[in-house]
Amino acid sequence: MCRISESKRWQLLLELVAADIRLCAMKPRTREAKKSLFQQAPLVKNSLRLALWVCGTAAGIGLAENLLPNPKFDEVANQPAGWQLVGSTGQRLPNAHENRSALMVKGNGKSQTFWRTEPITLKPNSLYRFNFFGRWERANPEGGALAGPSTINRDFLLTETWARYSYVFSAPSSDAPKDFVRLGEWHVSGSVYFADAALSPVSATFRRIAPGIELGESESVQGGTYRFKPNFKGIGANYHRPLNVNRAAFNTDRWVFYSGSEVIYRLGVKGGGQARAKVDTSLNYHASGSLHVDASRDRTNWVSLAMCDGQRRSASVELPADLFPSDELFVRLSCRGTNSSLQVNAFEYESRLTKPPPDGEGLTTFADIAPGASEK
Predict the structure, then answer these.
(1) What are the backbone dihedrals phi and psi of residue 75, each rounded to the nearest 5 degrees, phi first?
(2) H/E element, 14
(3) Which homologous superfamily does the CATH classification assign to the domain defined by 75-202?
(4) Is this structure's pTM higher than 0.85?
(5) What is the SS3 string spanning 141-153?
């Protein structure tokens, strides 16, 4: 996010208004337009939107809704209202970043210390962007800064200079859709600083490669083959266009499964006619339980494909022929067993298309949702 001085914002506003006045004066008016003295021309409408942004940011008002309590960390009773320190050492620092307060935590190289909010309601299967400014002063190369909701956490490697950090995530389905947000450290020997944090709802749009056909980040069609290989380290973290059901936790670059957790992907392209397909997945961590990989045409009748556990950490399997032909297929990853705990850091799906669209690489773009606006 670019940061513009207040004087520059007002200069931009005046230039936009002047430019619109000149354009409106030059543009011939139609008979219909003459009937409405206050009808906005498209160019005026666009620049007014930008002008609202200029004015809003000049006044310190963002267009996106911030769900965090007290995101500027104002002081109440010697600590920021709405935030609680968990761990031994931490404090609020006034005027630490651009004349605003910051939160600091200090670690000893073996600790986990963080500031946390009270539980915040997150709409299941909705998208959110979490961002903050951060920096650190550490004595060893170990550990990381932790940020975000406790069940969809991301670790960050900061620098000694203030910088903006951000990621987007899909809120999991849950019987109790509330989660607290953390800003802290894990095994850092030194101090970590946070400022200007925000948690905001966002929407996703995808690249259209043909009429009625869209592909998101980590999806592609090349030479008649559809591929989906999610990059869990990317800006979208646990979210990609094929994600259909999300009932699992997430940490940095991997799905975190406990007993009963599941993730379902809806895979393929409209009208592509999949003729055959294969799935690859692997565990990077296993404590107990098993991961089951299943496939379905209708998300009701499932066919077992593979099982991963402590003895077999990865699986690569062809899907049964009786699932084809099909434009789209569902692949489910589910965790079974008592007190299960395992993590999935790799997944890949590849299928051969009988009616492939033009070659193309997917792209996902995230946009803030203004307060009061509904998701499309």
Answers:
(1) -90, 135
(2) helix 6-26
(3) Galactose-binding domain-like (2.60.120.260)
(4) no
(5) CCCEEEEEECCEE
